[in-house]
Design goal:
Strand 8 (161-167) and strand 9 (171-178) form a beta hairpin. This protein folds into two domains: 4-128, Impact, N-terminal domain (Ribosomal Protein S5, domain 2), CATH 3.30.230.30; 136-208, 2-Layer Sandwich (Alpha-Beta Plaits). It is 31% helix and 38% strand. By secondary structure, the chain is of the alpha+beta class. The chain is elongated, with a radius of gyration of 23 Å.
Length: 209
């Protein structure tokens, strides 16, 4: 599947069990740097929390580019992995989820920690607003000057946008288009004597609410 859900806006929720507070924060993260920025924001907001456990999933959740997690001092496997399991189950991509914990003085045990971190992650994911990430494909089109406005109009109708344009003896336009528009582009180009070539088949991504 080329399209997938991503966070539309950051969200934070709080969950308490046996006097321990679990504050879960989920936000968009398109790369590791953005994910660590979300972590830094949680640490700045809750500097006295004992743990800031997290997991992120970058890219399409069905075939992510990268995933990572941290227990941040909790017993191994009791925090980061449960958070990541929730992300994978919810099938949301480009996301960082941090759970900050204030210890309440009552030990929860390994099983209790797994359940608590899972529950905190579940709660924030349940109310998280999502946008649709539409994968775009990049193509270069070579055309006569007289056809430029026609192609620009065609792009507007098919959800494409212009990446760059250059002028030599003809017009060279680099476009990003939804995958569904690729065949119509070929047909439009063939009918108007345009030449279409692949620039980068992975293209960029465009989030739409």
């Amino acid at each position: 599947m080329s399209d997938y859900s991503v966070p539309a806006a950051p969200l934070q929720v709080e969950y308490e069990i046996k006097k321990s507070r679990f504050i879960a924060r989920a936000a968009l993260a398109r790369d590791r740097e953005q994910a660590l920025q979300v972590l830094a924001e949680a640490k700045a907001q809750f500097p006295d929390a004992r743990h800031h456990c997290w997991a992120y999933l970058i890219g399409n959740p069905w075939s992510p580019g990268t995933v990572a997690m941290s227990d941040d001092g909790e017993p191994t496997g009791t925090a980061g992995k449960p958070i990541l399991n929730v992300l994978q189950h919810k099938q949301v991509g480009d996301i960082m989820l941090v759970v900050s914990r204030y210890f309440g003085g009552i030990k929860l045990g390994a099983g209790g920690l797994v359940r608590a971190y899972s529950q905190a992650a579940q709660l924030v994911m349940a109310d998280l607003s999502l946008a649709r990430q539409v994968s775009l494909c990049r193509r270069e089109v070579q055309l006569d000057f007289s056809l430029e406005q026609g192609l620009r109009h065609w792009m507007d109708l098919h959800g494409g946008h212009l990446v760059e344009v250059s002028y030599t003896q003809q017009v060279n336009m680099v476009l990003d288009l939804p995958e569904s528009a690729l065949q119509p582009l070929q047909e439009f180009a063939a009918a108007n004597g345009m030449v279409v070539s692949v620039v980068n088949d992975t293209g960029d991504d465009n989030p739409t609410a």
